[in-house]
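Notebook entry, structure prediction.
Reason for the run: the old model in the group folder had no record of what sequence produced it. Starting over properly, with the input documented here first.
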Amino acid sequence: MQMDTPRLRLRRFTHSDVEDFIAYRSDPEVARFQDWEFPLSLESAHRLLRAYSRSDPNAPGWFPYAIEVKADGRVAGDVAVNRRRSGQEAELGFSLARDRQGQGYATEAVAGVLRALFAGGLHTAAAECDVRNERSARLLERLGFVCSGQRAVFARVTRERVDMLMFALSAERWNALGGQWESKA
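New structure, fully documented this time:
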């Protein structure tokens, strides 16, 4: 499944994305609010991309969309969707290369995925972010997500307790807000 926004192509990862994938997944500033190990080895990157290329975006479980910037054809990050078995709920996560942050790409990518999910019958989207990750929290709020609480988790990579903000967005709220957020580019 591929989706296009004004500046981005949201698509399945391919083998040719490995260098861009390693670059942003290995950046400590990008990884600091994620619970993945870094730096990412070439072997691990190939293994992950093989698994991603076989996953089904409509099946329960995680499916990561590569965020490709149309202007240069490079992968700038990902939006991952974890569909629940019911098909009515999904959790979203996102990450973006440091040099691509602050340009509206993450907001545009998440909005593009939400648009497709809600058009496909999703009832509720959820997301979490570290309380220290103010930029991600603002992005979620800008798209209509409502903070529904906070919980503590144990981050396996950093081996520390982390407070997470929990967000939710219903199809009704998305539609009431217009559901058509577009890039200002």
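Summary: The domain at 3-176 is CATH 3.40.630.30 (Aminopeptidase).
The old model has been moved to the deprecated folder.
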